[in-house]
Give the backbone structure.
Amino acid sequence: MSTITKRVTSTGEIRYRALLQIRREEANYTESRTFSKKSLAEAWLKKREVELEENPELLHQKKKSQTKSNLTLAEAMEKYLNEVASFGRSKRMGLRFLCNWPIGGIKLKDLKRQDYSAHTLLRKKGVPEIDILPIKASTALQDLQYIKSVLKYAEQTWGEKVDITELDKAMAGLRDARIITKSVKRNRLATSEELQVLTNYFYRRWKQRRTAIPVHLIFWFAIYSCRREAEISRLKLSDYDKKHKEWLVRDLKNPNGSAGNDKHFVINENTQVLIDELMAPDVRERMLKLGGDVDLLIPVNSKSFAARWQQGLKILGIDDLRFHDLRHEGATRFAEDGLTIPQLQQHTLHDSWSSLERYVKIRRRNNRLNFEEAMRNAEISILKLK
């Protein structure tokens, strides 16, 4: 039996998985490949069916080779990435990165607990010679969780001989030693002073340089919309419903896979102000000249924006403030304004209440800066420099 399954990857690309299955008394044969076009998948299936019909001994050779697989972890990761499309870009990038580490060259059947431990200790130490920084205990745990998902898939789907208990025992020991731990919830909020100096800095650059990115508008939009950096870079104008005051976020981050996890977030008055600012003809024209997609709210290269943000933090001497903290800032503001958890979910798009419990009974800050005030102060700061 032959089937072709259409899949959409986390990056929006369409892939076609061709699956060839032959069930006979003397042999059970399964083979699959993934293609960028349906016609290529169809052609491959026809070709393989003819080859196997004319050379039935290949069925037994395949089965024999599967029992003596020499697949390395890196090869298994690449195969996994080609076959599975239901996870997010973070996991995809993480697995591709792990392919290049020494553990990737070890055969699946040879992996032992000391291999996982050695990999974790190496990652925790970093490799300064090639500018790879040490990682946190939570990132080390994520490494091993990614590897485990590949091993389980290889064992259950490909029939690979994998001793997952070796990984489990390594993780148990590393947890006991606190070398790997779950991530701690951050509570970092930007102060009003930090938000003001960031607004001043990025607005001044916007006024002085024609090739600048309106970072001052983007980061305030992130606060009021509670959107992640990656989500903002993917927001399509065609998904914007101004009449009903909502915007569709595609492939929303989710532990069970982001592909196809599309949800609408509510646009409040403050968010609408920032949308109007970003859609102003002069702002829009300048952003489009940077070569982005005309259907994007922010038609600029996401890496360029991220670099500008980090550069600004460094120049201004603002420590330990991540762009993702602005999402926490936005949710905190909604909680301060008295929104219930179900109302908060309409903005943050969290699936579970447990993720939002920390926002219950928050007292409003007395000196909370807003966008309009920040922009008035930024204008004044520019006038003082003239």
